[in-house]
Specification:
It contains eight helices and 15 strands. It is an alpha/beta fold and 250 residues long. A hairpin with a 4-residue loop joins strand 9 and strand 10.
């Protein structure tokens, strides 16, 4: 299966937005544009749901503070590319000084190839490299429970998460678990980009703890001590997991 990344575009200028969308859809870039928006408030829920790999945004024509919005997304692991105009030289110089990727309108294939292809290659390594996933999971996460207090964990000890009424149960590689007082959606956002994928409404699975899959049946088997299979939910969730599984770089 071909490696594929997803992207969204945020630009209040309809012509520029559609032009960039058509350009990025060329097979050369291997990008699937999952949404084009004129306002960051329209894009925000889609980003939270679809978790695109790359966000293209005009920081001055997006219906809000594009730089602040981009900063919060970059901190969560998203790749962000600014799309500016030549007239905004002060902003362009600032982006250059801070080594931010950006395109200048009108965007053409030459500058897109020069600036975006290396970024796409970086994003692919981030998404599919086991070495990178291992590195991303080597970080501390604080879990909180209203009754039992707090627990600090290293993310690479997590096998999977599951909804438990109004809480989420973190299940660890040693067979232990801990309940946290938050939703699965919030937990999913906290571990974005770390190789932990939603496979159905109630489960998030660490791809590094998958022992084997049954494609036709949509079944996931985890490494010991977990023997109970997990059944995949929506087709698009299963296909996303399969795509990453097939393209893991060892």
């Amino acid at each position: 299966m071909k490696k594929n990344l997803t992207a969204i575009i945020i630009d209040s200028n309809n012509n520029h937005r559609e032009h960039l969308c058509l350009l990025l859809k060329q097979e050369l870039f291997g990008l699937t544009v999952t949404g084009c928006f004129e306002h960051i408030d329209l894009a925000r829920p889609v980003i939270n749901t679809l978790q695109p790999d790359i966000i293209f945004i005009d920081p001055l024509q997006c219906g809000g503070d594009g730089f602040k919005f981009a900063k919060t997304k970059t901190e969560k692991g998203f790749e962000v590319v600014f799309v500016t105009t030549p007239e905004n030289q002060k902003i362009n110089n600032k982006l250059i000084n801070h080594k931010h990727e950006f395109l200048q309108k009108p965007v053409d294939a030459v500058q897109t190839i020069k600036r975006i292809v290396p970024l796409i290659e970086t994003a692919l390594r981030k998404k599919y490299s086991i070495a990178n996933l291992t590195l991303q999971q080597n970080r501390l996460l604080t879990l909180k429970n209203n009754e039992h207090g707090e627990k600090k964990i290293i993310l690479n000890t997590l096998a999977y998460m599951e909804s438990a009424n109004s809480q989420v149960r973190f299940n660890f590689a040693d067979g232990s678990n801990f309940l946290v007082s938050k939703t699965l959606k919030v937990c999913e956002e906290e571990v974005y980009g770390c190789g932990i994928y939603r496979v159905q409404k109630s489960f998030l699975v660490n791809i590094l703890y998958i022992e084997r899959l049954k494609r036709a049946e949509g079944i996931i088997y985890l490494k010991a001590p977990y023997t109970k299979p997990i059944f995949a939910g929506k087709e698009e969730l299963w296909q996303e997991l399969i795509n990453v599984w097939d393209n893991l770089i060892y």
